[in-house]
Amino acid sequence: MEKPIKINSGADSLAIIGDQIVSIAESAEKRIEAIKKIKSIVLTITNEQDWIDENGKPYLQASGAEKVARLFGISWRIDEPVIEKDENGHYTYTYKGYFSLGACSIEAIGTRSSRDPFFTTKYKNGKRLTIGPSEIDREDVKKAAYTNCIGNGIKRLLGIRNLTWEEIKINKEEISSIKFKKNAPDDDLPSPPPTADQIHKEFPPKNEPEKLQPNEVITTVEDGEIKSGTSQSGEKWTMYIFTCADGNRYRTFDEKLADIAIYARREGTKIGIKWKQSKYGREIIDLWPEEIPKEKEE
């Protein structure tokens, strides 16, 4: 007589699976809380200057990503760039990076093309021009791809990509907007910087050196950005922020003063800045050209 086959009721298996599910759920909850904490820390150490509005979504710039990396001890290694050339002479730089945080490592890509309107648009004598690839500084495209790679890697490693405006709790109207369009009309592009003659006429350079006050500095403009929005009373505003060689950032709502800084950045000339400290940073009281080269006759 054959022995009856004992059929497992599955109760033990279900119990094991149940324990595994509980463990997985608890681990998932801890991960979610960790990501929430990371997001909170990121928002604590960054400010509105580290974020931009890119096609309606918040984007953490490399400046903010590097702040986060230093805090969390993230390290990275970047390969040499791959350069792709188009038949029309344009080119694309692509970097591949390896990012590590403790035992966790990931790979990330950063890319920028000379076709980007940021590189193909320039101003001359107050007129907007579209320049070809031979006139674009390759180093600018290369550096942009490099910083793009670093930003992407840090954000991916910490799980802080695809954030919403509600999550970062920064007023979208206070953040600069980047929306590049193909064949964009003139109205969609920023106003051209002033010519040298316009600058000379309204803001003549100081000929005699004066003793600087503690809140005055002679420096050069390294970078700049424009932010715009609407106040609670419904009034539209535009703010200009300039990063200077002295390591500080200065801001103003005065378009004429901003024009001087934009011109100086384009020509590589020095400017003088008088500023006051506010809770938002260094506010420009006055700004003047220290040197303005004559424009060359064609």
Blueprint (SSEs and pairs):
Layout: H1 11-45, E1 51-54, E2 57-60, H2 62-72, E3 75-78, E4 82-85, E5 91-101, E6 104-113, H3 117-120, E7 121-124, E8 127-130, H4 138-158, H5 165-168, E9 177-178, H6 196-202, E10 216-219, E11 221-230, E12 236-244, E13 249-252, H7 255-267, E14 271-278, E15 281-289
Parallel strand pairs: 1-9, 13-15
Antiparallel strand pairs: 1-2, 3-5, 4-5, 5-6, 7-8, 10-14, 11-12, 12-13, 14-15
Question: What attributes characterize this protein structure?
Answer:
2 domains; globular; Enolase-like, domain 1; 298 residues; alpha+beta; 31% strand; 32% helix; 4-stranded antiparallel sheet; 7 helices
What does this protein look like?
With 298 residues, this protein is α+β, with helices and mostly antiparallel strands. The protein folds into two domains: 34-170, Enolase-like, domain 1, CATH 3.30.390; 196-289, OB fold (Dihydrolipoamide Acetyltransferase, E2P). 32% of the residues lie in helices and 31% in strands. It is built from seven helices and 15 strands. The protein has helices spanning 11-45, 62-72, 117-120, 138-158, 165-168, 196-202, 255-267; strands at 51-54, 57-60, 75-78, 82-85, 91-101, 104-113, 121-124, 127-130, 177-178, 216-219, 221-230, 236-244, 249-252, 271-278, 281-289. The chain has a six-stranded mixed β-sheet. Strands 3, 4, 5 and 6 form a four-stranded antiparallel β-sheet that branches. A three-stranded mixed β-sheet has the order 2-1-9. The protein is globular, with a radius of gyration of 26 Å.
